[in-house]
Amino acid sequence: MAVQLKIALIQLDSFPTKQAAITNAVNQIRIAAKDKGAKLVILPECWNSTYCTKEFPRSAEQIPNGETSKALSKISGELGITLIGGTYPEVESGKLYNTCPVWGPKGEFIGKYRKMHLFDMDIPGTCTFKESSVLTPGNEFLTFNVGEVKIGVGICYDQRFPELATVYRNRGCDLMIYPSAFDTYTGPMHFELIAQARALDNGMFVALCAPARDTTKDYVAYGYSTVCDPWGRVLSRAKEGPEMLIVNLDMGLRDSIRRQIPTQKQKRTDVYEVVCKK
To answer: Is 115 a catalytic residue?
Structure first.
């Protein structure tokens, strides 16, 4: 019988305080696991504070020892799930990072991924953002297993760099997870398209977990959390508001697709190759 993995993507609403956001997240995680039966729960990018360069220093905490981290560790251990903690600002040795932590079913800290490609963009009159003005890029990959399913982590803007996903696929990943807060200009054009492309390119499942749209914020997130299968087909898609996606990933489908079109075996590594330096 093929391996199945039930996942939950929680498109969280915003709240005026970190404490309120944490309380809401914990309540939604409990629903995803206890009521919906999810074994892997995924939170969005920058869910416990405003996605704003001025806010990052005020909201930053240590990972895995800060307030948010302790709450997520406790709930993952209570429910016996693997929890992708979305992202929130991390401070270490005076530097700030946009970081995604992961906890296991005993509440244990599995590891963290720091956003590697910082979101610096300027579309005059539409959207301007410069993460590099306050954040430091990460340079380490993160993989882990939930049962027999191997998972890799990226964050939002990382999706636009196919080489990153290729490295994870070369390391045997079956699922890529990107907590993501695309803007409302590029989101309609590229969000779903990039998810499909990364899935199809690598014959893997791809999950993008976004925060819900809040038009009262300076930075308005697109929403539309999405899950794609290894054919590049959309399995599930949220809308703009708070929502929970429950998706059962069938690894039998992964295996059949990879047999039918075995691109990994057909790559011309004698001519070209993606080289990982870390």
So the answer is: yes
Q: Which residue in the list 39, 45, 100, 112 is annotated as catalytic?
A: 45
How many angstroms separate the CA atoms of 16 and 55, rounded?
12
Task: Report how far residue 209's alpha carbon sits from residue 223's, in angstroms, rounded to the nearest whole number.
Answer: 8
209 is catalytic: no
Percentage of the chain modeled with pLDDT above 70: 100
- Write down the residue that tokens 């790559």 correspond to: 267
Phi/psi of residue 23, each to 5°?
A: -60, -45
Catalytic site residue 52? Answer: no
Question: What secondary structure letter does DSSP report for 64?
Answer: T
Cα three-residue angle 223-241-72, rounded to 5 degrees: 80
Token readout for 38 is 């999810």
* Neighbouring C-alpha atoms within 13 Å toward the C-beta of 67: 13
- This prediction has a pTM of 0.96
